[in-house]
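Newbie here. two chains, one complex. Structure please?
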Amino acid sequence: MPTPALRVPRAAALNCSACGAAIELHAMGWAVSVVCAACGATLDATDANLRILQRGGQLRLTPRIPLGTRGTWKGAPWEVIGCQMVTITVDEVDYSWTEYVCFNPWRGFIYLSEYQGHWNVIEKLRRQPERERGGAQPTVDYGGLTYKHFQTARARTSAALGEFPWELQVGDEVIARDFVSPPYLLSAEGYDEEITWSQGTYTPPDVIAKAFNLDRNALIRPIGVFANQPNPYGHLPKQIFGLFAMSMVVLVVMFLANILLASNRTVLSRPYSFTRGTEDQAAFVTDVFELDGRPSVVAIDIDSPLDNDWLYLSFALINETTGESREASRQVSYYHGVDSDGSWTEGSRHETVRLASVPAGRYFLRVQPEGGEPARRVVNYTLRVRRDAPVYGFYLVAFIALLVPVIFAVAPSVSFERRRWAESDHAPASSDDDDDDDE
Amino acid sequence: MTVPQPHGATCPNCGAPVRFLWAQAVQTTCPYCRSVLVRQDLDLAKVGEQADFPATGSPIQIGTEGRWRERTFVVIGRLTYGWARGRWNEWHCLMNDGRSAWLSDAQLEYAMTVEVGAGADMPDGARVQVGERYTWGDTTYQVATITTAFYLGTEGELPFTSYDRGTSRFIDLTSVDGRFATIDGSEHPPLLYLGEYLGFDDLAFRNLREFEGWRET
């Protein structure tokens, strides 16, 4: 016959051996030590007489979540039974956070950790990480994720209250190594050569307040960026890269189509000469040429063997049938010489004028040459007219325009990551706040 | 399941009837007077008495049922140990295939193990160090903790006697995939148990203890 199923009382009522105050033990025999709320003494919870382990200290702890608070986490009820303040010293500056012990009589213990409004729900791991790698920034693999080393510090208990499933002493120290893969944090704590691994999950204060039925204002807003805080902008680069990639595909397709579909056919190619000093008689018209197909670009290429000379040409592309005129002008020049810095050249003997969306029809050019060095009486040049020439400039502009939202999407994410790692042992070198742990 | 009963299976101390759930049980306790009873052929002999049972607060009790590796089990006995940081139970479970298994509840972290027969390559327990690695079967285990514990008490059916237990050295080893091994240094040669850690919900417990002021979900 099994032992009769006795109901376990809510809490064992005892008295503090140091000051006589009432002590309640809620952790059903699993508490190892308990810190008296009245005098701060640490007592042996496994001893029926609550033997004193450590006399009370000076520091008073006021938990943001009062001991005795009940909450629900992952569908199970939990009670906050203990609270400790943990402190590390980095570059002679103390940083402290609060850890709460939560108890469930069937499921055991979970822990809540809070630093400047940032919360983690921590569970002790039941298996080792799969792999540890050394190097400048060590990593740990666990559960399919790779965690990067964040910080190694000597962590000590600076104040405590309530029940703990270990023998807690104010002043106790452990070496803690933290590894992050947001929103997760893996911690390895050393205690007499034994390593305990635990996993924290970053949890917004609203979620904690709701789970433990706390007033919305009981918890402060997070300050700064925490080690395993998810990057709120982390999704932006991914989204914008997707759009950027699609846009680039479209742009490349358009570019290739532009090249392939452009016939780039020469419809006029003839040499001309210009005698200086005859400007008032120099204007002329070319032969008529046929522009067929869809409305598209007409390119006029100017090619001239200039030598320390220049030439200015004005054009009008005139439709023989309608009289419609499209006008443009361009200068070609070429100068060269030698000076104290060596040889130099300036200008170009080749230029191209583009006229967009010229409809089909019969056309001729009216050309007005002018300018140049008077000492050279005659200058020769060739004009070539090409139908449906490809256009290039648009694509560069479009590409640059598409880059702008990418930069705006990436910048906040990169900034957030920089702020995260600025708090670690691996702070970027440019950071003003260089953290080096005293170990 | 019909279990052959020792002749006149009554408690030699108080005369109450004693019933065995497990044919191979070597030791049990009388549910009425807490005498520790050992089988000797067809008789029961009292070898000790279990004083007030130390409280551990475990939600598990004799009669608790659960499920592990597709088999159901029932808890039929336990040993309780104390150590520097508290107490824990090793619950003796009877699997529905008749085999024996152990459920540990240290700090309410649950582990199921089965004793591995002789032939396992055993280290010299006295020289084991934290961090060392050992391989049994296809799994490499690393020594996680070495605990000196003292025997506190017993209840129900066990596959061995416990009245002669004193201080024991337990070596706990873990692996990267959640497997668990423990070496019980109270036996000579030491006993090896292999198994795994499990979450409370994984074990699908029934007939657990109730706790005043708490509902399980």
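Moderator note: Residues 109 and 392 of chain A are 67 Å apart (CA to CA). The interface with chain B takes residues 1-3, 5-10, 27-32, 46, 75-77, 104-109, 124, 126-131, 165-167, 193-195 of chain A (CB under 8 Å). Thread marked as resolved.
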